[in-house]
TrEMBL record:
Name by which UniProt lists this protein: Iron-sulfur cluster assembly protein
GO biological process: chromosome segregation; protein maturation
Pfam family, one: FeS_assembly_P
UniProt similarity note: Belongs to the MIP18 family.
Entry keywords, A to Z: Chromosome partition
Domain of life the protein comes from: Eukaryota
Domain MIP18 family-like positions: 50-121
Segment forming the signal sequence: none
Gene3D superfamilies per record: 6.10.250.1280, Fe-S cluster assembly (FSCA)
One GO cellular component term: intracellular protein-containing complex
């Protein structure tokens, strides 16, 4: 974690556990579970916006003891999934946030480690949310720059620290 704090007092929001439609179907008394399993045996369940959000919501902010969801850096409506293309838009807490690239890199690494190889992932800042929006977007979506960043052990250690508790998937410890 760098010495300079870019946003010393961020707004922290309450989070809610996500209830997925598939979870509701599992609890239904009216569904014949055996028939549903037989009908869907050959189908690949597509990944949706909520699943992507579950993967990234509990990534820790590099500056604060809060998750990206608690700081409203990420939210489900900022995620778009079309076929094998995932677009994640995130909003830094302040327009001059020096951690934006690190946050975006953490999101990218989490998704690359979690999604099948067939998915293409784009990470972008919410338009107008950062003073260096174009430069940060360019860094986050350039394969060579991402690979070079992940070869830097200090940077990789910081990313790993942000991802250390990401498996919580929206649930408190």
């Amino acid at each position: 974690m760098p010495g300079e704090i870019f946003n010393p007092n961020p707004t922290v929001f309450a989070t809610k556990p996500t209830v997925r439609k598939s979870d509701l179907l599992k609890q239904s008394l009216w569904i014949n579970e055996k028939a549903v399993q037989e009908d869907n045996a050959d189908e690949v369940d597509p990944i949706d916006q909520d699943e992507i959000f579950d993967l990234i919501r509990s990534i820790d902010d590099p500056e604060h003891p809060n998750t990206l969801e608690e700081l409203r850096v990420v939210s489900a409506p900022q995620i778009d999934v079309k076929g094998n293309h995932v677009m994640v838009e995130f909003t830094p807490t302040i327009p001059h946030c020096g951690m934006s690239t690190l946050i975006g890199l953490s999101i990218r690494v989490r998704l690359l480690r979690s999604l099948p190889d067939r998915y293409k992932v784009d990470i972008r800042l919410k338009p107008g949310s950062h003073q260096s929006e174009h430069a940060v977007n360019k860094q986050l979506n350039d394969k060579e720059r991402v690979a070079a960043a992940l070869e830097n052990q200090a940077l990789l250690d910081t990313v790993e620290q942000c991802l250390a508790r990401a498996g919580r998937r929206g649930h408190s410890e």
